[in-house]
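Troubleshooting log. The previous structure file for this entry was overwritten by mistake, so regenerating from the original sequence record. Sequence copied from the archived sheet and checked twice against the printout by T.R.
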Amino acid sequence: MLKTDDIYFDSIRPYIDSEVQEAATNLLKQEEIQGILHHFFGTISKEQLEKMLEQATSIARFKEIFLKPIIEQITKASTFSLTISGKSKLAKRGDEKQLFISNHRDIILDSAFLNYLLYSSGLGFPRIAIGDNLLISEWIRMVVRLADAFIVKRSPSMREMLVESKRLSNYILSSVAGGEASVWLAQSEGRRKNSDDRTQVAVLKMLTLSAERGESEVDLLSKLHITPVAITYEYDPCDYLKAKEMLAKQLDPSWKKSPFDDLINMRTGLEGQKGRVHFAIGETLYDLSSITQAAETKQEVLQLVAEEIDRQIFTNYRFYPNNYVAFDALHGGNQFAKMYSEKEKAQFEEYLERQIAKVEAAPEHHQFLREKILEMYSTPLKNHLITTKQYR
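Regenerated output below.
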């Protein structure tokens, strides 16, 4: 098994510890970064900055010194609470590394919050998978590599597709099974705008490309210690942007999101109010044979593993009054009226109107926007109810 600092991984890997100080020094010369530092650290002298740089001798130390305080400030400014459950399942495993696979709500904060929560619990920093479509400037590329993020190439040529997918698969295997670091990976490419979270079989297929000759998909995936994580944001500050994108696609099927749109989504996600945020750690998938014993083909094996990841995510969502209000509003009833007060219902309706008003759309499109935002908040509840056999 290759080490993750092998030259084979140079095109996708994060910085390694020996490269951190030089990379960080170059990064901090960037005008955009200086503005970010002053925003989060206030007036900081050259001497203070040099001292911080001297202490950033590794990826972990860089994250502790520069990134952890920023996440703490974002959490304080934009959330009511940030909590985690299920971490005891990981603590008892000692130094074992996991492949965390989660639903995807926010471009940056899903992985950043998970890093912060796990580190604060004494469980270390996981590595992060990030699409190269988000690396729209050199300073962003430098930041993510210093944040221990490895790069997923989203649009390689057909000829390069298999080569790059194998490289990515081998990197994740080397990191986790090699005992170097846990890894976070979103269950699908991009965020599901309607919150109908589903694990893409293609993601699992990519993971199996690192299998050795004669090694089964079950054996390979078992090495990765796949651990589902359910992420819940009480409020998604990008909900109106997602609805706006869906409207644009509805009006013009050829419409495509630009890098500038991604930048707006990133900034809105960082700064917008999220209310209560919760991460629920599921059960690690060690015994995949019990899950896949009915499978007759490789595709069926992957499909059953995907369904188990989804089952855990759907089951472990945490719900808030707005989820129940949205479900009743979308489905035209009061099935969950006991789960919210009239005040909470009115507050969510007011919130909904404010978000719709942020979209520059003709009045005749407001109902479409309303329904799409309601879907975002009600679909996780619907999937939970179906999974737990409570849906009527």
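The two ends are 50 Å apart (CA to CA). Archived copy saved in two places this time.
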